[in-house]
Structure formats: C-alpha cells, structure tokens
Design a protein that fits this description.
The chain has 11 helices and 5 strands. By secondary structure, the chain is mainly alpha-helical. A 3-stranded mixed sheet has the order 3-2-5. The relative contact order is 0.15.
Length: 312
C-alpha cells in the first residue's frame, strides 16, 4: 500500500455526527443554541467574578479558569462541527486537525487538573477551616493554576509532536465530528506503538492523579463531617461542595457510563457520544450548576443588574 508523509496531507474528511440528513437542520439549531448558551453563560460567570469583590476568593478564582476552559474546549470543536453540518461534505485542513488535537487535549487536561485543585480547596475549607486563609493564600492559588496550565500544555504538546511525525495512508476519512487523536492514529500507516505507549502511561498518570486527589479530598471531607454528626453541618458542607461534586460526577460519571456500562452500542458510537458530552453538554451545564444553587453568585448578578439599571 502506498503511503504519504504528513507534509503531503492537505486535509481530512470528517464523517460528522450520525444524524439523518432530514434532521440536520433541527440538530444544527440545537447545537448552535447550546454553544451560545455555553459561551454566554461562562462569560457571565467570569464577568461576575471579576466585578464583585465578594467573589475574589480561591474557589471563584479557580471557577473563573474552569469557565474559560469550558468556553475554549467548546469553541475549538463546535463552530467547525456546525459548519460541516451545513456543508454537504465536512472537511478540515491538516493544520486545523493538528490544532484541534492540541487544544482539545490541552483544555481537557486543564479541566481535569482544575477539578482536582477545586476539590483540594474544599478539603482545606472544611477540614482545616482555621488555617484556610493562611493555606489558600493568593500565591498558592496562582501557583496551582500555573502548574495546571504548564502540565496541560506540556501534555498536549507531547501528543501533538508525536502526531505530526506520523505518515498517513491514502484514506483520510475520520469517522468523527472533529480530529480526535485516537481516530487519527487509526489512519496512520506509521508505527504507532510509541503514541499508544505515551497515551496509556503519561496520559493515564495525568488522568489518575487528579482523580485520586479528588477522591482523597472528599474521603477526608466525609470523614470530618461524620466525626461530628450534625444536620446543620451536613447541609452546610453539601451547599459548599454540592456544585463541585455534581460537576465531578458529570465529568467522570458520563465517561464510565458511556465506555464501561453500555455494551449495546459499537465503540465508535461510544466515542462520539462521549465527545458530545464533553465538548457540548458539560461546558453548557457548568454555569447553571454553579449559579442556580449559589446564593453568592445570584447576589452578584443582582448587583450587576442593579448597577446597569442605575446608569440607564
């Protein structure tokens, strides 16, 4: 079989979502609405945190970065997906494909680290409340976010550099709605053993470590709460951690449900469904999860609205 090196590949064809042609218009409007909700909702969260001094705390500092990451991970995938839904044949350039891989890995990994950092923040707040101010000082918060960004950038860069070394067969059709790394590897005519080894080792470690940190933090929180059983304390803890717990459950629970507990779908359907959840659904839900039950966010929104009405 004849092979082509990466410099000769000009574009890839994307099969897109498995949607009947007669329903593409409906799904286009649905995904467009979800994307706009994601962008506007997360931008509102960032704006409120910036404008209201009551939200200048470690938890909301981390939340603002999570909101930015959610906007980014949707913006690198959904607009191109919507464009291809309107076109008769979806395609993406080689450079665009490699860029999607880099930024998707970057912000997916960043989400993972930020959820772990937020869990640690809740652990310190509940298990060591008297030391919270001294422990979660501004320097530490900035350092935790900076380290998260650095590890995520390095992780994404490593996989991207390995990807650009690949050669591809004459077939260039990706059975997905964006350039997923695993789907791209299946097209390669090169030896992908090193790529797979890095995915299962380095990628696995960077996935397991944040998850272990989250589980460890909430085990300690649960132990602390159960030591002094009190209904008031339980509800206070739930109100403090409820939003974050829901996001963590959504992030990791959908992964388990799609990949481990549903054997009736084929593997490609699982990957596409999981990708839609991560790139469209979860980023859209995060602003609602963190605002609908959050009294401080609601108060900040009321203040901003009142200021806007005052200056009219």
């Amino acid at each position: 079989m004849r092979t082509e090196n990466q410099s000769s590949v000009s574009k890839f064809l994307l099969l897109g979502l498995p949607i009947p042609p007669q329903q593409r218009g409906v799904f286009f409007l649905l995904f467009l609405g979800m994307y706009l909700t994601t962008v506007l909702g997360n931008l509102l969260i960032i704006l409120l945190i910036r404008l209201d001094s009551h939200l200048h705390t470690p938890m909301y500092f981390f939340l603002s970065h999570l909101a930015f990451s959610d906007i980014s991970i949707s913006s690198i995938i959904v607009p191109k997906m919507l464009m291809n839904m309107q076109a008769q044949q979806g395609s993406i350039s080689y450079v665009g494909c490699i860029s999607q891989i880099y930024f998707f890995i970057l912000f997916g990994c960043l989400d993972n680290f930020l959820l772990a950092v937020m869990a640690y923040d809740r652990y310190v707040a509940i298990c060591h409340p008297l030391r919270y101010v001294t422990v979660m000082r501004e320097e530490l918060c900035v350092s935790l976010v900076a380290v998260s960004w650095c590890f995520s950038c390095a992780h994404a860069l490593l996989h991207t550099l390995l990807s650009v070394q690949l050669s591809f067969c004459t077939a260039s059709t990706i059975p997905h709605f964006f350039c997923d790394l695993t789907a791209l590897l299946k097209l390669s005519c090169s030896d992908i053993c090193l790529n797979e080894l890095v995915i299962f080792t380095e990628g696995g470690v960077l996935f397991i470590l944040p998850l272990s940190s989250i589980l460890g933090s909430y085990i300690c929180i649960g132990t602390t709460v159960l030591r002094g059983p009190s209904t008031k304390r339980f509800f206070k803890t739930f109100s403090t951690c409820g939003s974050h717990l829901f996001v963590v459950s959504l992030y990791y629970g959908t992964l388990a449900a799609v990949y481990f507990f549903s054997s009736s779908w084929n593997s490609n359907d699982k990957e596409i469904i999981a990708s839609v959840i991560y790139t469209v659904v979860t980023p859209m839900l995060n602003p609602f999860i963190y605002s609908l039950r959050n009294r401080v966010i609601k108060q900040a929104l009321e203040i901003v609205v009142n200021r806007a009405n005052f200056f009219k």
